[in-house]
Write a structure and sequence with these properties.
The protein is mainly alpha-helical. It is built from seven helices and no strands. Helix 4 runs antiparallel to helix 5 (about 115-130).
């Protein structure tokens, strides 16, 4: 995994070069006029950066760190920046991928990873519940997080009732 993460980080150099070029194609005060042209790509890049950071450290990458990885600004006032909604959308995509990783980890015989993913996703869900999301695409993506939480909880539960993970067994109800 560390070698794959390093390889992915090398590709972000190309991304930074491309984004530098993009910045020169429109006036800096018209960012939102053209935002829809790169919105999806930025969300996907946030997901990729967040996934690499998660695989390296099992932590959530900050918006500022993603902006640094991509070579763009975190603050709106400084020009081409990482919009907060694009960041949040990318993080929600990370949650979906981690739900898949939990299932695949069990298949590969790694029974402790789903518990760690569960803890991370539950903390993420708690953070998103604090937000007052309006009825837009971000809200719909957040609604998908509930299904990801449920999917991961089912994996952890299955591990605990089968006794395949002592940590999951202890964390799920106390007794072995």
């Amino acid at each position: 995994v560390p070698k794959k993460c390093q390889k992915a980080r090398e590709h972000f150099g190309t991304v930074r070069t491309q984004l530098e070029s993009l910045k020169t194609k429109f006036p800096t005060d018209q960012y939102y006029r053209f935002h829809e042209h790169w919105r999806f790509v930025l969300q996907r890049l946030v997901f990729l950066a967040a996934f690499v950071v998660y695989l390296e450290s099992e932590t959530l990458v900050t918006r500022e760190a993603v902006a640094e990885i991509l070579g763009i600004e975190a603050d709106r006032e400084r020009g081409f920046h990482l919009d907060i909604e694009d960041y949040l959308s990318g993080v929600l995509t990370l949650a979906s991928e981690l739900a898949r990783l939990a299932v695949n980890s069990v298949t590969a015989g790694d029974y402790s990873r789903p518990l760690r993913i569960s803890t991370f996703i539950n903390e993420l869900d708690s953070g998103f519940r604090l937000l007052n999301l309006k009825n837009d695409s971000l809200r719909k993506r957040y609604d998908g997080l509930k299904y990801d939480v449920k999917k991961i909880e089912e994996v952890v539960y299955d591990l605990s009732i089968r006794g395949l993970n002592k940590e999951a067994t202890v964390g799920a109800g106390g007794e072995k």
